[in-house]
Specification:
Elements lengths: L5 H37 L4 H36 L8 H19 L3 H6 L8 H49 L1
Helix pairs in contact: 1-2, 2-3, 2-5, 3-5
């Protein structure tokens, strides 16, 4: 027997999840376009200056960009879990998501260091902490991407073996 009260919540969760996924994709694309446009406009449409300003803008906004994408992704996963979707998280994946969340929040907090450095209130090497969190996020994305890829390959092979076993049993039953 299904509970009628839970059905609207699941539908609402799916709609919210779809909206968050769309927002994440839009932000990831439009954020990158904004970084490129800021670099192009600041450079005065000069190609050599564009690459210089791209590096500067990426240094300033790269960690913020990755942190916001990570927070949107984690929020989407949280909404999916609350909507009752089974994500089959392993302890390693849960640990990765926790480190993702911590690094993303720390990356957003350390952006405060940049205006303090520009105002000469803090020495310049302190900004390396901000860059370190951006590097940690990139490293986590690489690790989690490899982990997901290997997991999907193993899962695909397991399903293929199971399908072949079922097919073999069906043929054996057919032949007898």
């Amino acid at each position: 027997m299904t509970d009628v009260r839970t059905q609207p919540n699941k539908e609402k969760g799916r709609n919210l999840c779809t909206a968050l996924r769309t927002l994440t994709v839009l932000f990831s694309v439009l954020g990158l376009v904004a970084i490129l446009l800021v670099s192009a406009v600041t450079a005065g449409w000069d190609l050599n200056a564009f690459w210089f300003y791209l590096v500067l803008v990426e240094q300033m906004l790269g960690t913020v960009y990755l942190s916001l994408i990570t927070l949107l992704w984690e929020l989407t996963l949280h909404v999916r879990r609350r909507a009752g979707e089974n994500l089959c998280d392993t302890p390693f994946a849960k640990g990765c998501h926790l480190v993702f969340l911590i690094a993303a929040i720390a990356g957003l907090v350390t952006v405060v260091v940049i205006p303090l450095i520009l105002a000469d209130l803090v020495s310049g090497p302190v900004v390396l902490v901000h860059y370190a969190f951006g590097g940690v996020l990139l490293l986590l994305y690489a690790i989690f991407g490899i982990y997901t890829l290997v997991g999907r390959i193993i899962n695909h092979r397991r399903e293929e073996r199971q399908r072949l076993e079922e097919e073999k049993q069906a043929w054996e039953g057919y032949m007898t």
